[in-house]
Amino acid sequence: MSNGADKKVAEDKTNMGNLHSYLHSFTHSNIPILTTLYFVQGLPYGIQARFLPIYLRAKNVSLTNLGFIKLLLLPWLLKIVWAPLLDRYSSKQTWLLISMAGLMLASLAGAAIDEEHFLSLCVVVFFMNFFASTQDIAVDGIAVAILSADELGKGNTAQVVGYKLGSIVGGGGLVWLSDYVAWHHLFLFLSVTYLSTIVLVCQLSQLQNTYLRNYQSKSNRDCKDIETKTGNKCESNMNGYIPTSHTKDLKEMCNKETEGADYHRPVDSTDGEKKRTGREDDWWMLQVLRSPGTGWMIVYCLLYKLGEQGANGMFPLYLVDQGIPKGAVGMWTGVVGQGLSIVGSLLGGWLLTGHSNRTPLDLLHLTFTLRLLPIILQMVVIWEGNTGELLYSYGFAVASMCLLQLVGGVITTATFTTMMHCSRQAPSSILGSHYTSLATFEVMGKLLFMTVAGSLTDFFGYFNMYVFFAFLSVGVMPLLKYCPINFHKNE
């Protein structure tokens, strides 16, 4: 009996050790934590993009008004205003905690209001977008700093997959659950989710220390050399992730001294500043715009998704107009379709992590061509009409939605990887702000277009708008020929 008891105790200890090892590896790994943070960040987008349009269209809200609801995403455009504040003050972990607490409180407010009070609902969703966009700044700043060149594919996969999983739960998931669960319980579930994430965010010091141990092994030696040679104290970055521009200047001065350059003037010399950087005192947005490849990247971000976004936004509403039950539409477009979008994102990440010689640009050339097929198929379905009565037409509708989401997932991963390559060419002092700016322009193009797409569809009709969506998808393809981004790995 004692041997059996000892064996059971040993097994229990082994299991506990395995659990502890798993939890330890999770909290000390970059990718799972980033995936979780992007998941909770995607919940408000799912509510905004999938849940509310289908839910309200079933109550006969006009396409024009549904388009104007997109303005609740305004914080995603304005976040560049407060992005520099997050880079300069406090730590990324602190801002994450603040944004998580805000999301939890907004969800509790959503549980307290009546679903018929449309204005109150809009206010809740607006503040959810505000805190989610603030969280995005903090997480993007961490991701850009801690991911090596070899991890960019995995990191962007974590970003896209986590965000889309959140949008599935907040979009199609809530549409389906709304037939069985009361409105108040849905938002209580969201608040519990954010509370759980706050507990996880408190463990981010583990992630920060993991990175700092790798970084300090080199930076501490550099700082000692700087202090010895110049008598200037090496300035550490408040966020603990990237060196400050002052530290960078000191390092450059030490390098010039080591190379025998005549560089013994003070660091704050005006001539020296101009010689080294020239424009470090400029407004941070000007530094962003002057970074290599940024102009092209902004134009691309504004245009690349317009046709696809229009098709994804209008086709589910067309199906609701055809008499398809909102639960079925929400399941196909918000759960199955978004699930395939995640598969596409995983596929894109796999293709960009050393399993092929394709660059993000090569992948975009291929997927932009494939994207035309489901858009044209949806045009045929709309031209045929009677989707709710014709089985084959309904089958084509479902297939086109799934294919468009699959291809769109690959495109999104390739695009965000391209954006990170562009941001890595920017000065280290504005890495977070640079990537946040690109992400803002990426949202801006889709938001402004979808704000007016409903009104245009009410006026021109579904089919004519789909001709326009196809034109936009084709028109962006020549832009890839002029891409100036350097995709070669550099450490």
TrEMBL record:
GO molecular function term, any single one: transmembrane transporter activity
Gene3D superfamilies assigned: MFS general substrate transporter like domains (1.20.1250.20)
Membrane topology according to the record: Multi-pass membrane protein
Listed Pfam families: MFS_1
Location in or out of the cell: Membrane
Keyword annotations from UniProtKB, A to Z: Membrane, Transmembrane, Transmembrane helix, Transport
Entry's transmembrane regions: 61-82, 94-112, 118-148, 183-204, 327-351, 363-385, 391-414, 459-480
GO CC aspect terms: membrane
Protein name as annotated: Major facilitator superfamily domain-containing protein 3-like
